[in-house]
Known about the structure:
single chain, Rossmann fold, 5 strands, 55% helix
Amino acid sequence: xxxxFVDTNVVLDLLASRQPFEMESRMLFSMADLGQIEIVxxxxxxxxxxxxxxxxxxxEDARTIIGKFKVLVDTHALTDKIIELxxxxxNFADFEDGIQYYTALESQCELIITRNxxxxxxxxxxVFTPKEYVIQLSSQSKS
Length: 143
């Protein structure tokens, strides 16, 4: 089973029903629900997702949504090592992208799934959009 890291933007696409991206994210997380892939996210993603959901729904609803979502993913802790690596890597213009990248590496994921692959240009592991990854898995299962 593939172990994949999913960026916050893909999580938000699903949980905040962001169009036109929700369906691709739904398909990705359905694969995790069916045991076809293992999804890892950063603990920072949980915090950021709650913050954004809290703006579009009630606080108690945001917590309920995240609580139900949490059963689909493994959450990797944000550690001092990850913070130091991200702080010292100037390949990432966005510090949060560095956090996501080093969390993926530290949790030994095979690839990163994000809607912004350009943010991970120098990644040592493959980077896919949700759509690209779903298409790739579909074509592999047909082979």
